[in-house]
Amino acid sequence: MKGKVINIVGDQAELLLFCDEEPANKGSHCGACQMMQQPTSKVTDTLMAKNTIGAKVGEVVHLELQDYAELKSTLILLVFPLVVFIVALGITSNGLELPIWESAWISLAAIAMTYVVIKRFTKHKTYFYLVEEKTYG
Question: The whole model's pTM is what?
Fold first, then answer.
């Protein structure tokens, strides 16, 4: 995947993603290049990546995902909240002996609070990093 550096924030670079592969070179990165389709969106996608190569604003760079990024994201965003839900449901229904519908509502509130905490602690977390530097000629 390629992107143009539009901003540097600390040790991270904000990138504007784009495709340069046929047939998806007529729009922003939409995933169509992997499916051999025409892009359907003109929305510009941006993301943050670790600036491991010291890229400057305006440079075109390649970026990749860190090893096991999908697994780490799944654990943080799906498995951890599911465990919180099950534990909260068990504590409220068995420990506090609340009716199941009250236990379910409390457990859903626990999931909501879990996502707020996850959002707060992973606000600047990125699994992307820059691997190669290229400039427009």
Answer: 0.59
